[in-house]
Amino acid sequence: MMTALDTFRRATATTTPATALASDGTAPTAAIASPADAATPRPRRLPTVLRPSRWLPLTVTLVALGLLWQLGAETMPYLLPPLADIGETLAGNPGFYLANAWVTLQESLLGLAIAFVASSILAIAISEVPMVKRAVMPIAVVLNVTPLVAIAPALVVAFGFGPEPKLIVTAIICFFPILINVSVGLRSVPAAVLQFYRTIKASRLELLWNIRIPNALPYLFAALKIVFPLSIVGAVVAEMFAPGASEGLGTTISLASSNNKLPVIYASIFILALMGSALLGLVTAVERRVLHWHDTHSGEQK
Amino acid sequence: MGSKTTSSTTGPATPATGDETTTTAIRIAGASKVYGSGQNALVALDGVDLTIAPGRFVSVIGPSGCGKSTLLRMIANLERPDAGEVEIFGASPDAACEAKLIGFVPQSPALLPWLNVLQNVTLPHRVNRAAERKRSRAASASPRSVPDLEQLLDDVGLKDAMHKLPAELSGGMQQRTAIVRALGLQPEVLLMDEPFSALDEFTREALQEQLLDLWDEIATTVVFVTHSVTEAVRLSDTVVVMAPRPGRIVDVVDIDLPRPRSAELLKTPEFHHFEDLIRDRLQAAWRSPELPNAA
Lengths: 302, 295
Fold this sequence. Notes:
The complex is a heterodimer of chains A (302) and B (295). Chain A is mainly α and 302 residues long.
């Protein structure tokens, strides 16, 4: 009896930190250990993530969706492939998918990098010189509202089947959110801060480097959270319009659809979704480290 | 509108180079400022004259819209007068800012949220480094030794908070940081724009005392804008009373209470005498016929 109680205590002691770490607001009830539980100790307690209250809702949704999918696949075999087929093609040729995913990832990250450098420089120019803003902003807005899918084929014609059109499309799609957010961030320094530094005649460069750029960082990260997943969209769209290209998940999808290989299409889509989520998770993690001072992390999480 | 000159006999001695202009720290002559035009024109300042001797603690008090903040912002080179002129140790406000002669404490602490307290007070020393040369050339400006900022922070009770971010501090601690940031520059002129107005009564009185202690050591010229009569009387050598529409100076009252002025002094009849005097002046200005909408 005594030992059973001890193991219980040890078990609760180890689960407590896990509870605190995992409390992102999805299951507040899981964090509260009721007195009734303590009075009647069960032999084993599960870590928070393994408790049904945490994993059950999503599992139920996934199972329901899976069942609906299977039902759809049986009634409309030309629209949806059976899940087993998708799993089979993924497991049967993982190297193929990894290689193509790597190509697409490289394109999207490189395109994003180009957009980041170009739009950051332009954002600084816009923020420092009002004339540049008037000259450039209308074009940037028009470029932003022009459907990307319409630009892609033209770029493929112009630049061929190499990486160039993919990088350009990705860069264009990522360009605008960064430009707008960063230029707003550079210009939203509180007036009193600027007044103080004006009374000691800090130069524009000093203001930019010490005050405006750090002030724009939260805005930049907000843009990056939009733009990282978008970069994959850009790369895939460009790949689809360059069917002569040999690699990339967009090419894979485009080829598979002309051959009616539904499982391959959905396997690629699955990987793309996974990639997008991973990139988003990465940006969020970096943001938490870099912007530890910013109040979105101390305030809103509660 | 006669010229109002604060007496310069009791101010702490400042190093003079023998130049005539060095007997005044701040000289404002016929300064006017109008916002807007036509029917909507608001005369923020109407031909204001004010001369402040070096080392004096001068408060500017008045109701909203009397132009007291405009006056301060003109000295700080954040606004230019439409007419008249402003001089700081014989130089233009622009030149005074170039030489970092001015320490400005805004109404809100205006700290940089990504820098800790120590970094917030050291950053001003890392910008506009050319100021040191200009300052030594500027008329009558005393040579500046590099102040010990950590010591200054310690003096105002921020030793333990030195490596904290502004968001982790109380409002009073943030404003103390802003004061150290300005005083750390060892300015010839310290300009404070209602710096304690957002604080609670206790914090406010504690900060007044700390400010007086710091001022005792640094002995700089202070212009302190406030709307609190008690605060003005406690802190100042001279209180400048202003009235609105148009913004103008209606009186200049010298407060010859002994220093140091502890919290005990606030209860004395002498203190109340000055408070009542300034309240009377403010109310007289409020009722004056120059006010068009007097009810």
